[in-house]
């Protein structure tokens, strides 16, 4: 992996291997439940100036990363509920890069998204724990991917997604000595 790829994907790409087991799914659900605490730790003590620092050249600021997690995970939680209550719904994609440039994504205090993520993940964790194994085979059609994405697969993707963005923050802190 070259330097830019390492900065973009500090924990690598999401690539689950083989069949998703119940144990793997349980681990991912735990990781989704733990994300708020990990994110709070990652941003603890950062100044406004530090929050407005991009995690890489051409990348989002740390502030935008925090707000993006809230935006992305809100969309995902809704997609999970649609997949459980409807038959293979087609979900609406959104332009996450454009959302990050809106005032609430680019300038709002991170405490707003931190609180939102905390509440959202508490609900999501309860919801995921309540699902029966066969419900993780349900899914939704994502137009950008052109296929049905099962909840089992997407559970892992969002466990990875949270860790991926926390690593953007923590790796910048390491590089800068913050």
Q: What is the number of E strands?
A: 2
Straight-line N-to-C gap = 25 Å
**Relevant CATH superfamily:** dinb family like domain
Question: Percent helix among the residues?
Answer: 55-70%
Question: CATH class, please?
Answer: Mainly Alpha
| Main sheet: strand order | 1-2
CATH level-3 fold name: Four Helix Bundle (Hemerythrin (Met), subunit A)
SSE class? mainly alpha
Question: Describe it for me?
Answer:
The protein has a single domain (22-176), classed as Four Helix Bundle (Hemerythrin (Met), subunit A) (Up-down Bundle), CATH 1.20.120.450. 63% of the residues lie in helices and 4% in strands. It contains 8 helices and 2 strands. Strands 1-2 form a two-stranded antiparallel sheet. The longest helix is centred in the C-terminal third of the chain and has 26 residues, at 151-176.
Brief overview:
This protein is mainly α. It is built from eight helices and two strands; from the N terminus they run H-H-H-H-H-H-H-E-E-H.
Tag the structure with descriptive keywords.
two-stranded antiparallel sheet; 178 residues; 8 helices; Four Helix Bundle (Hemerythrin (Met), subunit A)
Topology:
Layout: H1 3-8, H2 22-43, H3 48-51, H4 62-85, H5 96-101, H6 103-106, H7 110-130, E1 139-142, E2 147-150, H8 151-176
Antiparallel strand pairs: 1-2
Helix pairs in contact: 2-7, 2-8, 4-7, 4-8
